[in-house]
Design brief:
104 residues
């Protein structure tokens, strides 16, 4: 009797864990998209268009790819692209800050 209850409990726990993991992968990457947009805006405001145009363009391209992936409901790819967009925007920001310091 006890072993039957234990088995039912364990099956329920495994099912709950699987649903939780599946739920994480099926949600759109809202926060990641927001973070990427903010990072791109900060890079633009810091002059990345002039000092780090390649990295800034790469960030914009990754963000656009993330948006396309969201529209296709490929949220895992969208999340990866949004994170890449944020990273490239941070690179552009860093380069633009360095570029401004180099100028008299």
């Amino acid at each position: 009797m006890q072993s039957t209850r234990l088995i039912i409990f364990l099956r329920g726990a495994v099912l709950a864990a699987l649903l939780a993991v599946a739920g994480c992968q099926t949600a759109p990457p809202v926060q990641e998209m927001s973070d990427a947009r903010q990072a791109i805006m900060a890079a633009k405001e810091a002059g990345a268009a002039e000092h780090a145009s390649d990295d800034l363009q790469a960030a914009v391209d990754f963000l656009e790819s993330a948006e396309r992936s969201i529209n296709a409901e490929n949220y895992a790819q969208a999340r990866r692209d949004a994170l890449q967009a944020k990273a490239k925007a941070h690179d552009a920001l860093r380069l633009s800050e360095t570029g401004r310091q180099d100028k008299p």
